[in-house]
Design brief:
The protein is an alpha/beta fold. It has helices at about 15-30, 170-180, 220-230, 245-255, 275-280, 325-340, 395-400; strands spanning about 10, 35-40, 55, 65, 70-75, 85-90, 110, 125, 130-135, 135-140, 150, 160-165, 185-190, 195-200, 205, 215, 235, 260-265, 285, 290, 290-295, 300, 315-320, 350-355, 360, 370-380, 380-385, 405, 415, 420-425. Bound molecules: adenosine monophosphate and magnesium ion (MG).
Length: about 425
């Protein structure tokens, strides 16, 4: 029997993240472009990653568009105020071309609605609020500069221009843009299959009645939710026992997926056998811990020996600590970029915002902390505070939280009112 990894490699948060990003880049570089993609209807595409370039099929907007309800004018007609102009027509949105004045002459105007085309001759739109109709004329009390309240034809995009590039995560705005250029289906990257293997003799499934010392499996479900949100397809394996042979069989099964996530069994306990099992399979360990809280025992590595030969970048695994908050946090910090790379697109950066701390924090140095917190407050006055928690097993506290306060490893005191980094969920 081979021993667990001989030297443990515990990295700083930054170094561990860097290692993951390096491996993600290797995976991306080794991929065959365009292989794992599928076409989906537009409404199935939100959150997926685009695998085709989307271009403008015509100028956007396709005509000079009024952004207001009001009157089209020649701005030079408004040098003396109030100005009285002759109304020669009404232009509504979608109006037939032959019902739109071909030219608006000096001294003339036409009423226009938001989204309607501005006719030739006019160079501005005056908002209806600054006008008073007088029979076939209108009195205007406000001047206008050329171009005011008009978006010129093609100002948003020229026909043929690239609007959405491969690898983009499809947000609501991107979906709307795709619709606006007539894409009812989109080519997206296939969801990578991510195996989830929970370990622990105390773990029972969600439908079982737990015995007095048993715990329901929550990690497989929180991970599955994160995998789905990150664009992957979770594959839940049966719970593995704290026993080497059973564990080995299920790890081999999990390595058939595009990525394997283990939870539990990576700490220092006598029955924490995950690293030992992976060593038996000749795994390479990139790190076996990170100086973070929660999630210090997190493991990242690659195991190619027992994976059937295939083109996919299989063999990567993470051993996530079993404590439920650690599992959730280490997924966000380390698994997500790898999942994105395996899915065929560039990993997204971690993004932090800053908010004022509501109550001081006293803490030991040495670990970068990602502590469950609540971001609240008024517009322009956001504030953030830790939720009371019982440590990294307290998923109830994390469910009450909406973000994490990030505390650099060198800090031991953060004062109330100080700006702190916040990582959103
Ligand atoms: P371990 O990392 O295996 O030492 O587990 C650390 C803690 O997390 C223990 O209290 C476990 O009972 C708990 N735990 C491990 N796996 C799960 C799971 N899938 N769902 C809920 N709690 C778990
Ligand atoms: Mg365990």
């Amino acid at each position: 029997m081979s021993a667990p990894p001989t030297s443990s490699t515990v990295l700083s948060f930054e170094d561990a993240r860097h290692v993951v990003e390096q491996q993600a880049a290797l995976v991306l570089a080794g991929r065959v472009q365009g292989s794992e993609t599928e076409s989906v209807p537009l409404l199935a595409a939100p959150g997926r990653f685009l695998a085709e370039p989307v271009a403008a099929d015509r100028d956007l907007p396709p005509f000079p568009r009024s952004t207001r309800d009001g009157y089209v004018v020649r701005s030079t007609d408004l040098s003396q105020l109030p100005a009285t102009l002759e109304v020669i027509g009404e232009i509504k949105a979608g109006e037939h071309l032959d019902r739109i004045p071909t030219d608006v002459g000096s001294g003339q105007t036409a009423s226009i609605m938001t989204g309607a085309p501005v006719p030739a001759g006019a160079d501005a739109v005056v908002m209806v609020e600054y006008t008073s109709p007088r029979g076939k004329q209108v009195e205007i009390t406000r001047s206008a500069v050329p171009g005011e309240n008009i978006v010129p034809r093609g100002a948003e995009a020229r026909s043929g221009m690239l609007l959405l590039d491969c690898g983009l995560r499809l947000t609501e705005a991107a979906i709307g843009l795709a619709a606006s250029v007539g894409k009812s289906r989109l080519q997206v990257y296939k969801r990578p299959r991510v195996a989830v293997l929970t370990t622990g003799d105390e773990i029972v499934d969600v439908d079982a009645t737990p015995g007095p010392t048993q715990i329901r499996n929550s990690n497989s479900y929180s991970l599955a939710a994160q995998i789905l949100r990150a664009g992957g397809e979770p594959v839940l394996l049966p719970v593995a026992p704290d026993e080497l042979q059973g564990l080995l069989g299920l790890i081999k099964e999990g390595l058939k997926s595009d990525l394997l996530l283990l939870t539990g069994g990576v700490s220092m306990g006598r029955y924490d056998l995950v690293e030992q099992a992976l060593s038996e399979l000749h795994a390479e360990f990139f790190f076996t811990g990170a100086k973070i809280q929660p999630g210090r025992p997190v493991v990242f590595g690659k195991c190619v020996a027992s994976v059937p030969a295939r083109e996919k970048p299989a063999g990567y695994f993470f051993g996530l600590p079993g404590n439920p908050v650690s599992t959730v946090v280490t997924f966000e910090l380390f698994v997500r970029p790898m999942l994105e790379a395996v899915a065929g697109h560039s990993p997204s950066r971690l993004r932090f915002l800053h908010a004022r701390l509501k109550k001081e924090i006293l803490i030991k140095t040495g670990l970068t902390r990602f502590l469950p917190a609540i971001l609240s407050g008024e517009f322009e006055k956001s504030e953030v505070e830790l939720v009371a928690w019982q440590g990294s097993g307290d998923i109830a506290a994390t469910a009450r939280a909406n973000c994490y306060i990030v505390i650099p490893s060198a800090r031991e005191h953060m004062k109330a009112g100080e700006w702190v980094a916040v990582m959103m969920r």
